Each structure stands twice: as structure tokens, then as C-alpha cells.
Amino acid sequence: MSTTVSSRFFSLEEYAQRWHRVQQAMQQRGLDLVVVWSRSAGTYDRCADLLYLANYYGNQPGQGRNGPQGFSAVVLQVGQTPELFADMQDLRHELIATDRVQACSNTFEAVAHRLAAAGSRKVGLVGTDLIPMKYWSRLQALTPQVQWVIADDLVREVRLIKSARELEAFRCAGKTASAAITALAQALIAGRSQAEAAGEAARQVTRGGGHVHQLAISHGAQLKHLASDPVVGYNQQTPAADELARAWVTGPMFQGYWLGPGRTVVCGAHPSPPQRALLEANAEAVSTVLAAVRAGVKVHELVAIGDRLTAQFGGEPSDLTREWPVYGHGNGLFFEAPSISVRVGPDAEFVLRENMVISVEMFFARDGVGQAGFENSVIVTRDGSELLITSPMLFE
Questions:
Q1: Is the pLDDT of residue 42 over 80?
Q2: Whole-model pTM?
Q3: Torsion of Cα atoms, 167 then 169 then 174 then 179, to 10°
Q4: 184 and 78 in one domain?
Q5: Staple partner for 286: which of 26, 202, 250, 374, CB 3.0–4.6 Å?
Q6: Got the DSSP string for 103-166?
Q7: 355 occurs within a structural domain
Q8: Domain containing 199: what range?
Q9: What is the pLDDT of residue 350?
Q10: Is residue 17 situated within a structural domain?
Q11: Do 248 and 340 have their domain in common?
């Protein structure tokens, strides 16, 4: 009898621990059954919960008209192994973490039949931000007996604290992201075009086992935008020898874990004194906020440091700070809580905990000089943090 060697990065024991923690959270909310929806179909921004629970990502294109391609679900019931309702027939069972799997042409109808068979009344719903109206209407029509309870944050809250194995994945992701942002920055400094520099970064990402979500590059008049081209992120232009260029590498860098380091450089030449002052102040601000990251620190404390450093620099408000009024965010199987918001917001009292992953990003601007931006990421430790992005902040 032939055997198939599993290439799962995480053990089945780890998945069982995840299920246990989510089921504990369900019981705290008075839910004995929850349906967790996920969308993949060529995107990554809403696939996280099913990757975490079942190690499943569907490769449907998501463009079909005959059924809900790209939408899959896990049904969680206290005391039972989770059941996956997958949107594909050709399944990699050796990768999937649960042995209870249904391959469905219409996952919404299959889940509705499952709920009817269970006689379910009060059911938690994870995924209200991703289910299209026509599928939600159909699901409701097929489950008149169900009282749906919105629980979108149920799995996300469990995912905030990373296991030892997840931190290993993040360290691998950090190596890949560091190599990619370094290659991108060095190519721009060497006088390469945006497209050529993006190619160098993409090579580092793919060789490290990651995937590019976006390579965002801008220079010159486009510095007020994150990306020169809103579709692909970069263009075919070559920055002049004394121009500032800002570059970001974003995506799931290893096993679906996201990082997005950013750097700003002067292309083809050494920075002028005003450029150097802008870059040094921006990079130092990011590093100073990161130095304050440790278990027990509240978000509003980090915001206060960011506000102080921004005021100390002076300058003008960056266009990108207006677009994204944050000093950072959490990282996981996408960008997640907490939001380190310039406007403080609902996460103000959020307390950082050991083994979270946090990114700090800041954008500075000065009239007559230009705009800059930097982002770095760390693992939160009991007494400080562990740097994940080891690329230099400043390049010459």
C-alpha cells in the first residue's frame, strides 16, 4: 500500500489545539455551532481563517457564473472535529488538517443542509464582510430555523497570539521579506527602472517560498501615491539620479504569513543634506516606536510616541498619512489587530501580548524635499521585541 508524505508545515496536534481554543471561545459566547466562511479564488485577504483551521485554500478562479466559486466554510461544533466544505473537487487531502471534508459545487447549500440535519437554532456566523448578498440571501432562505449570530472576530482573536511554530514561519517570512526589500532598494539606487527593481524583489520572494501581493514603488511626482501604477504597483520609468523613491514589498511571505516592509532611498546618488535629514528622521521615528514595543504596552502609548516624533520633525502632513492614519498594525495570515491609529480609535486600550507580531509604519514629508516612508516588523516578547525585517533602514 502506497503512502503519501504530508507536507503540512504545522502538525495535526497544533491544529487540534487551535480547534480547542476556538471552541472555548465559542462556549464563552454561548455558541455550540459556528460556520466560518472564507474566500480565496486568487486573493489572500479573506482566506486566513480556513488556512488557520483546516490548512485549506481553494484554487478556483472566482470568476464563474455557475455557483459560488472561491467560497468555502468550516463548521465548528463543540466537542467535534471541524468539518470542511470545500469549493473544489480535486482536493489535496494530505494537506488538509481535518478528515471530515465535503467537496461541494455549492458550498452555501451544502452548509445549509448540514445545519438542517443538526437541527441547529443559534449559529455563529464568521464572514459577514465577505459573503455576497445573493449567497447570503440563499443561505437564509434555506435555514429558516436558524438564528444567526454575527461572530466575525471569533477566529481572528484566537489567531492574534502565535504559537512557537507560527513564529518559526514568521522568521522564515522575515528572511524572505528582508531579502526582497533589500534587492528592491539596491536596484533603485543602482539606477534600474521601477519594473526591473520589482523583478529583483519578486525573485527573492518566490525563491523564499512566498508570494507577491504588491510591489508598490513611487518616485518623483508620484511620491504622493503609494504606487506609481494602481494596478500592478510599479511602472516602466527609471528615476533620475537624485530622486527619492519609496518602495514596499507586501504579501504572504511564508506559509501564508504576511509582512510588508517599506523603505525610501535616493536613486543613483548619495542623499543631499535635506534628503538625508528627511530619511533619517523618518527611519529613526519608526525605530523609536518599535523600541517601545513589548508585552504589556498599550496602543495609545505607542501612538503618543509616534505623535511626539511627528511633531518634533515638523514638516508637512504626508499624503499617505492622510490616506492611512496609522502608525502600524498587527500581522498574521493578513494584516490584523491592533490598529495603531493616529486617531487612536477603538484599539486605544489594546494591550500587546507576548508572541504577537507587530509592524510600525510612518510617512514623513517636507516641502521642497519630498515624501518618505518606512515600515518594519517585530515579534512581541516579554521584555521587548525580536526584529523580523533585518534589511538596513538607510541605504547609501
A1: no
A2: 0.94
A3: 160
A4: no
A5: 374
A6: E-S-HHHHHHHHHHHHT--EEEEE-TTTS-HHHHHHHHHH-TT-EEEE-TTHHHHHHTSPPHHH
A7: yes
A8: 164-387
A9: 96
A10: yes
A11: yes
